[in-house]
# Entry
Amino acid sequence: MKKMACPILIQLFTLWVKEYKKMINYLPVDKNTAKKYAQAFMAVFPKTFTLNDIGKIEVAQKFLQAHKKTLFFLQLPQFNEHRKESMIVDLIGHFSLPQTLTKLLLLLIAHNRSFYIPDVLSFIIELYKEQTNSIDFFIKSSHPLDQKQIESIKQFLGRLIGKNIIATPLIDRSLIAGLRLYSNNNMWEYSVRKQIQSLRALQK
# Structure
């Protein structure tokens, strides 16, 4: 006859899991340590990523940052090394990440630092952009732009600030036949609305 698990133990374990998951959101991450992992990785695999790879890493990083509870399972002692490796392989496959990241993520788990993964990925993205002299720019337009137009804008911005442009096109219907180009540190705008505002300012 099969023994039934003790209801009290099940309740206690369930409560422990809930509390541990809550705690995950408040676990401190040493940014300097996270950056060192990223720097070491980029030193071993210099120029290993393409811009397309970085885009996929950004998607994974944002997901893991917003869902840190998913990293909880990577630290459970009940899961053996083979099971954890299988989970990382699934993660890599799900986001179509470069295979070179597998060893890095497994190393973080082995060091009991699975919660560092989002920050380490963030620093890898940052280091890639430093190495390639790249900067993110959002291109807002009042109507959809074709690829040729986007490339022309990227070239214009590149000459203006002396960097390679990683462009993200967006639609903003509030713009009247114009463009708004911006990054974290730069902004450039040309629109009919802006010209009207400038004229009104002069009339005051």
User: Anything to note?
Assistant: Strands lie at 134-141, 164-171, 179-182, 187-190. The mean pLDDT is 81. The chain has two domains: 8-131, 134-203. Helices lie at 7-24, 31-44, 51-66, 81-94, 101-110, 117-131, 147-161, 192-203.
